[in-house]
Amino acid sequence: MVKRTLPTNPKTRRLIKLLRKASASNQAAIWKDLSESLTTPARRRPSLNLGKIDKLTKEGDFVAVPGKVLGFGNLSKKVDVAALSFSQSAKSKIAAAGGRAVSLEVLVNLNPKGRAVKILR
To answer: What is the mean pLDDT of the segment spanning 73-92?
Structure first.
């Protein structure tokens, strides 16, 4: 059986450790689930378009994406999105819709308990 290793990117490794600590200290299983999603190889991480985010969310939702958010499609609702990375067009379209595009570290600081956060894959 092949041994599963963590990503080699130091930023991603720090983020995984931060999420695991936040999960243990706040009794929030959502951070553990998110950290497990980040341990997958980079080529298997999800890339979500704004059109899919628009379809799966309601006004005022907070969404976490364990991958990259791309700018294809339109965002018609005010949605706050936290992701590992964003394309420039995705950031500008989220801001134009009235939402925020933040990193996953900022999301942990804003909402330590992880309440009302949806993970989209």
So the answer is: 96
pLDDT attached to residue 7: 86
The predicted pLDDT at position 4 comes to 73
Dist. CA 19–CA 112, nearest whole Å: 10
Let me know if 51 is exposed, middle or buried by CB neighbors in 10 A (0-12, 13-18, 19+).
Answer: middle
For the domain that residue 77 is a member of, what is the CATH number?
Answer: 3.100.10.10
Range of the domain at 74: 10-119
Is this structure's pTM higher than 0.85?
A: yes
Q: How would you classify residue 110: left for phi > 0, otherwise alpha for psi between -120 and 50, otherwise beta?
A: alpha
Span 37-52, average pLDDT:
92
- Measured at the CA of 67, the angle between CA 27 and CA 61, to 5 degrees, comes to 60
